[in-house]
Amino acid sequence: STVYLNGAFIPVEEAKISPLDRGFLFGDGIYEVVPAYAGKTVGLEPHMQRMFDGLAAIGIKCTKTMDDWKALIQELIEQNGGGDLGIYIHVSRGADVKRYHAYPEGVEPTVFAMANPIKPAITDDASTAKGFSVATTQDMRWKRCQIKSTALLGNVMHFQEGYAGGNDEILLYNEDNILTEASSSNAFIVKDGVVITPILDNQILPGITRKLILDILEKDGSIPFEVRDISMEEVFNADEIWVTSSSKELAPVTTIDGKPVADGKVGKVWEAAFKLYTAHKF
Ligand code: PDD
Question: Which of 47, 245, 249 most suits a substitution to test ligand 1, by most atoms within 8 Å of the C-beta?
Answer without folding.
Answer: 245
